[in-house]
Structure formats: structure tokens, C-alpha cells
Amino acid sequence: MINLQKSLSTLGISASLLFLLTVQPRFAAQDDSSRLHVNVVLVQLNVAVTDHKGHYISGLKPDDFVVTEDKIPEKIATFEEGAARGNAADTVPAHAGESAANAVAAANPPEGGFTNGKISPVSGADIFILFDTSNYMYRGFVYAQDAISDFVRSMDDADKIAFYSYSRDLSRATQLTPDRFKVVNGVRSTVAGDDAALYNSLLLTVKDAATLTGKKAIVVFSNGPDNASSVPPEDVAELAQSTGTIIYIVSTRLAQEEPVSTAAFERMSKATGGKAYFAGNWRKEKQAFASIREDLGHLYSISYYPQPNPNRGWRAISVRLANKDLQKYHIRTRDGYSVLQTRSFTNESLLTPGPELAPRQ
Q1: Is the whole-model pTM more than 0.85?
Q2: What is the mean pLDDT of the chain?
Q3: Is 184 found in the same domain as 281?
Q4: Tally of domains in the chain
């Protein structure tokens, strides 16, 4: 019987939700009764690059990025540039002096992903919408439903969307689907009531997203503080970081009205490479959702196989632009992840602190 943890230690491979480990015994030969097969899943980064005015920078190439983990240089394995869905005026070419032919090539990249330094449009993203249906939502419930429904309809057909709602408990109203009509029906079927357990529900949603590959994001619509959760926001942020899940939060409360919740929302979203919005009226709510749609459409997706690293705790990730002329631009992405111990657990067990969340070192 193979001792998995001992074998992994010998191999120098960290066990993590990011590293999918499978043991597959084989009995084909008498002298080799079992083998350990380790499939290392790529570490996925979603990177936004903007100028000082907040305009997205397009046309960057793999060689323009330098990625390190614990200061160890990493080699980019896959690279994709987001298929921008928004106004072209909000997108600035990275190399303004390129020829017209190069500009056309950049606007129409070949299919097939990262090949010989070229890029292809992102095929889509898995998006989980988490809607606050607690008793905080009574006053603006219908307006919130309208804003979420419009957001769902506006997403590109290539994207899959799940719709969850929460009060004291999480309700998975609509599982991931490309069917916008089904998702909107889920939104319209929600009713308000009971206390708000945002962090419990968000942690369970992150767990649902953890098994997915590629670009994945959770969009939270909240109208108040959390008054019923058993886990802190720090645990949510750490699990989201370690699974490459972006968190966006749209709060209907103005930032100054709930300073504790505001700080928690900003920390969680920033840690995962997302954003927090504080929208005091329905117009600003729609603007927030439009901003999230634009952001998802402009993210660069970068992945890499981590180099050997003895660190089994918190691993710091750094992404910067290699070209000196490009270093004036701002980069937003997650800043690291915790190496997680692999063990089987149910959704409910995530609500009990355990060894799966490794402490920072």
C-alpha cells in the first residue's frame, strides 16, 4: 500500500486543490503491482492590465509577462487574451507603433490557443452569480433582480452561468448552463427573507467552482453585512486564491455605511484579482455589472506548471511586464495561494475549520 503523503514528499510535489493527484494501481505485471500517477494541473492566473485612466491594454504577448512564484521564475505554459466584448474606445493597443498588418493580426488571432507565441480568444468563462435574498433585501429586491437579469442577458453566448441565492442557507437555483432563459427564470423565482450568511454561502460557491478549469468568477450581489456565518471572510479569500477563482462583489450599501463589511469585501475581491463595488442606487448597480462584464472580457489568462518548491504554505505570485516601456501600466491579479492538503470533504465540512486551509508562512 502506497503512503501517498510520503510518496509526494519524496517526489517534492505539493498536495493542493491546484494539483490534482490521482493514484491508479496497475496489476498488468507481477513485478510492478502498483504505480503512483501524479497529474499536475496548471496554476491559472487571470490578469488585468490597465493604464492610469483605467483603460484596458490589449495586444500583449506571452513574452511581455514575467511570472514568479516565491521569486522562482516560472515558464508560461498557456496564454490567452480576453475577447473584449465592450467599447473599443476603452481598449488601448499595447504597441501603438505597430504596422497596420500587425494590428489586423492582433485583432484576429488564430485559433488553437498558445502556439509559437500567438494567442487566441478566450472560449468563455464559468460565472457563478450569488444573490443576497436575506431580509436586508426587502426594499430593493425587484431592482436587484432586474440588474442581475440584465447582466445575465448581456453575457456572451460562450459563457456558462450558474445562479445561486442565499440568506441563512445557500440555494443552488440554477446550475452552470449556457441557457440564459433558465438562469433568468432562476433569478425571477427568488424570494426574500431570513438572516444573511454570506461568507458561509460564498465559501460553498468557491468550493463548487474549485473543480473547474479555465477562467471562473463569482459575482456577489449583497445588500448588507453578514450576521449568520460561521466562517470568516479570510477563509473565503484564501480558498478562492488557492483555486484561482475571481470574486467580484456588488454591494447596494455605500462604503461609508458599513465600514466593517466594506473592508472585508475589498480584501476578498482584491486578494482574488477581482473588484468590489458600492452602488447606492439601481443605476450604479447596472454600471457595476457592466464594469464586471468589461473586466471579464479583457482579462489575460496565463497558466504555468510550478517549478520545484519546498514551501508547503503560502506561495507568493508576482506578475510584471518585462518591457520597460510597458511597466507604466497597472497589473491586477491574485498575489498568491496556500498549498492545500488533499482530502475528501463534503460541502458542509467546509464550514468547519480544518487542515485543508494551510496557514500562511
Answers
A1: no
A2: 77
A3: yes
A4: 3
